[in-house]
Write a structure and sequence with these properties.
The chain has 220 residues and is mainly beta. The chain contains 2 helices and 14 strands. The longest helix has 12 residues, at 101-112.
């Protein structure tokens, strides 16, 4: 972490070891920061850092029957909101489709049933919708423990933002159409998702659900 003055000169730098993993998101948390990491075996790991760059705490989220993948986060009304999606845990954790755990169950179904060239887009869409659930976790900023939990089936949790009325907006991407592309190098499954917009007040009460005309793309 580096600080710069108004002339662009570095005034202070501190290096913190966070282990193997990539930083996906960073947001303010009081006088410090909270970082979301992408790790090989843990896609819902968070690290808290002080304002001067020192690691103060770390925690991760998992349940007995599913894995979480954090997509966005924001501090709102002195709480941390995490947007994510969950997928069921695999019966055989080693069949993770080369580290693509999110779609491993779908790919395993295709390969185990030898449907490489025969599966339809409708069937892929059904499998994807059954596999994904959008979730939003409302967490205590000190302990990181989730205090509230919302979920939307057949969807992926998207962006979080605060609107002009100081209300929290959560984009939920409903899986609308998906297809299997085994010969594509950059992805095996791609889906087009319709965005639904959920608005919450400061107390966490859902005020509005809006179907937009916007779409998002999910590829793995």
């Amino acid at each position: 972490m580096s600080e710069f003055d108004l002339n662009g000169k570095i005034t202070r730098t501190h290096k913190a070891e966070i282990g193997l993993g990539q930083i996906r998101n960073v947001t303010r948390l009081g006088d410090g920061y909270i970082l979301s990491l992408i790790c090989e075996d843990d896609h819902a790991r968070l690290i808290k850092m002080s304002g001067d760059g020192f690691v103060t705490d770390a925690f991760s989220y998992e349940s007995n029957d599913c894995r979480y993948f954090i997509t966005d986060m924001i501090e709102y009304n002195e709480k941390i909101y995490l947007s994510a999606y969950s997928v069921p845990k695999l019966e055989d954790e080693e069949k993770d489709a080369g580290g693509r755990y999110e779609i491993a169950a779908v790919l395993n179904y295709i390969f185990d049933n030898r449907l490489m060239g025969d599966i339809t887009d409708e069937e892929v869409t059904r499998l994807m919708r059954e596999n994904f659930t959008a979730v939003i976790l409302v967490c205590d900023p000190i302990s990181g423990i989730p205090k509230e939990f919302y979920s939307v089936e057949e969807s992926i949790g998207g962006k979080l933002m605060i609107d002009e009325s100081n209300q929290l907006v959560w984009n939920v991407e409903s899986i609308t159409n998906a297809f299997f592309s085994p010969l594509t190098s950059s992805f095996s499954i791609r889906s087009t998702n319709m965005i639904f917009r959920y608005t919450f007040d400061k107390s966490g009460v859902l005020l509005n659900q809006e179907k937009t005309e916007e779409f998002a793309v999910f590829s793995r």
